[in-house]
Amino acid sequence: MKEIALKAGDTVVVARGDLQALLDALAARDYTLIGPTVRDGAIAYCEIRTVEDLPAGWEDEQDGGTYRLHRRGDGRLFGFTVGPHSWKQFLYPPVLKLWEARRNGHGFTVHRDESPQPRRAFIGVRGCELAAIGVQDQVFLHGKYVDSTYQARREGVFIVAVNCGHVVSTCFCVSMKTGPKVGKGFDIALTEILDADGHRFVAEAGTARGAEVLAAVPHRPADASDRAAAEVVSANAEQAMKRSMDTEGIRDLLYNNAEHPRWEAVANRCMTCANCTMVCPTCFCHTVEDVTDLSGSHAERWRKWDSCFTMEFSYIHGGSVRPSASARYRQWMTHKLASWIDQFGTSGCVGCGRCITWCPVGIDITEEVRAIRETDRAAEEG
Amino acid sequence: MAPTKAKTASKPRLAVWKFASCDGCQLSLLDCEDELLAVAGAIEIANFPEASRAVAKGPYDVSLVEGSITTPHDAERIQMVRKQSRYLVTIGACATAGGIQALRNFADVKEFTSIVYATPQYIQTLKKSTPITDHVFVDFELRGCPINKHQLVELVSALLNSRKPNVPTYSACIECKRRGTVCVMVAQGTPCLGPVTQAGCGAICPSYHRGCYGCYGPKESPNTAALSVGWSRLGVRGDDLVRVYRTYNAYADAFRRESEAHEK
């Protein structure tokens, strides 16, 4: 096929059989491919090489505290939603050595690993996830201080997004306005269509480099019926979404209900195990640990994912500021949904539902908001 | 806190003590193959019968204490250990919680001795197996059945370099998530003690598709009641819930109370 120049905004159709050419085109441009694959009974994000690595024919079923994979009965490659992993593990690694130092006479020399990061292509980024990357960009790149470790990983990333055609019960991206159709920030966005006309992808180039890659993949221009079919996929997904969160005035709602009895009620169920914060694609809190070897001649500083659910996290001289589970749950939810807005200009929640699914006891953030809203003390007094 | 710096002439003196235990935790010290020479170079191992018959008299800068107190003799001996030790660190579930032998605490030990021994009147044993902290002041504890050798080396390094050891008290779930393990409770419906268990082992069992057995005992602020509700949804109820909490850390406060709550 002769390569025809494409530009950002162009939409083409790529046959299922030609999707490997897209992966090959990215690999040929020195991208390490990271994508969804079935591992340990879940969709995990791992290094992939071929279309065969994708979870063909699998779909997930999720609810509070439960996740299961089933065969779909068709050959869709992206017929599932989001799993336990998120892209943050590649941009903001769970455990990272920041620097090391060696004793040198009476002083010491510091060594920081500044070897270049591999260029990664993320395959199958969903709307909520693209929004989450945007939220972490805001936190790590756009404030007064730039996190150089995040920047080094983020800069080279190529994003192949996927518009969700399947929804699980924990999804509420419509409420958070992050999906099911992906928003800004992708290089290529795919909509998977499997109907009487065959198995194909409607592919939209979001950037010039996305267009350049797409041009190297066998394709045909998308016509009106292809676009309509892609719109139907997103519309159906939106229609299928049952869970919701009313975000109207949520910042003030939570600020005004810091003493609400619901915090104690949720604390009876909350194990402060921190799973919700670990799986959240926007949670960015970490701890820094200094370690030394036995001889005292070598020291290292490590950054590790931490959580507002641990005692140590809020430990200052004399004890933990948030010793009770209610204080810690309130801190997490109020930051995520309210003070995040003051801090970063957006909500910290993208509606992916991971905190609901991966809470071992199924605590539901949308339900907690609903409970507080229904018995809003400020409203009752007013 | 290092009483003496590693490079000065007199190295900190270490003693290792055994009470009622299986020796597995002390052996973790010998299991530090890569680090053992460095450990031996940095500290004087003054009293460690598992490693050497040469025993140097106290006092000691650091005592590692393994095992629980189960006999009147133990109860006296631990006082002697405390008196001779600047810092006393308990290692393992026996020393920190009473160990598996604390199952006797839920029954009448006389019944056991009458069944097990031909002449039970020769047996001098206490009614309960208790952690070291019930008898003397403990400066620091390393959890686990057995302890993790990396935590042991971290503890020794921290002592030698006058810094706080990085020994977290949060849940095992955090270690699971950091290593990318898929939650066995959520994705497989496998009952797991991870959400109420202290981290430290590196979350080994879930990485082999097994639930956490709680070897490291209760984490900080453990909500065992909430976890039991979660387990009962997976079909674990009654006597089974009692047994879940009655293993290596059966007598650790949170696990003991939760097991008693499910006893008929």
- What low-confidence regions of chain B span 5 or more consecutive residues with pLDDT below 50? 1-8
How far the N terminus sits from the C terminus of chain B, by CA atoms, comes to 48 Å
User: At the fourth CATH level, what is the homologous superfamily of the largest domain in chain B?
Assistant: NADH:ubiquinone oxidoreductase-like, 20kDa subunit
Query: What's the overall geometry of chain B?
Result: globular
Shape of chain A: globular
Q: Tell me roughly what share of residues is in helical segments of chain B.
A: 25-40%
Number of strands of chain A: 16
Blueprint (SSEs and pairs):
The complex is a heterodimer of chains A (382) and B (264).
Chain A: E1 11-15, H1 19-28, E2 32-39, E3 42-47, E4 58-63, E5 66-71, H2 88-91, E6 95-104, E7 107-111, E8 120-125, H3 127-140, H4 148-154, E9 158-162, H5 173-176, E10 188-195, E11 198-205, H6 208-215, E12 220-221, H7 224-240, H8 250-255, H9 262-269, H10 275-279, E13 286-292, E14 298-305, E15 315-316, E16 319-320, H11 325-344, H12 354-357, H13 365-374, H14 377-381
Parallel strand pairs in A: 2-8, 8-9, 9-10
Antiparallel strand pairs in A: 1-11, 1-12, 2-3, 4-5, 6-7, 6-14, 10-11, 13-14, 15-16
Helix pairs in contact in A: 9-11
Chain B: E1 13-18, H1 24-30, H2 33-42, E2 44-47, E3 60-66, H3 72-84, E4 85-91, H4 93-97, H5 109-116, E5 140-142, H6 149-160, H7 172-178, H8 184-188, H9 204-207, H10 224-233, H11 238-245, H12 253-261
Parallel strand pairs in B: 1-2, 1-3, 3-4, 4-5
Please sum up the structure shown.
The complex is a heterodimer of chains A (382) and B (264). By secondary structure, chain A is an alpha+beta fold.
Could you explain the architecture of this structure?
In chain A, strands 3-2-8-9-10-11-1-12 form an eight-stranded mixed sheet. In chain A, strands 7-6-14-13 form a four-stranded antiparallel sheet, with no helix packed on it. In chain A, strands 4-5 form a two-stranded antiparallel sheet. In chain A, helix 9 (262-269) crosses helix 11. Chain A starts with 10 loop residues before the first strand and ends with a helix. Chain A has two domains: 11-91 and 118-240, no CATH class; 250-286 and 307-381, no CATH class. In chain A, strand 15 (315-316) and strand 16 (319-320) form a beta hairpin. In chain A, 45% of the residues are buried. Chain A has 382 residues and is of the alpha+beta class. Chain A has 14 helices and 16 strands. In chain B, strands 2-1-3-4-5 form a five-stranded parallel sheet. Chain B has two domains: 13-160, Rossmann fold; 172-261, no CATH class. In chain B, helix 11 (238-245) packs antiparallel against helix 12. In chain B, helix 3 links the parallel strand 3 (60-66) and strand 4 (85-91). Chain B starts with 12 loop residues before the first strand and ends with a helix. Chain B is of the alpha/beta class. The relative contact order of chain B is 0.13. The longest helix of chain B has 13 residues, at 72-84.
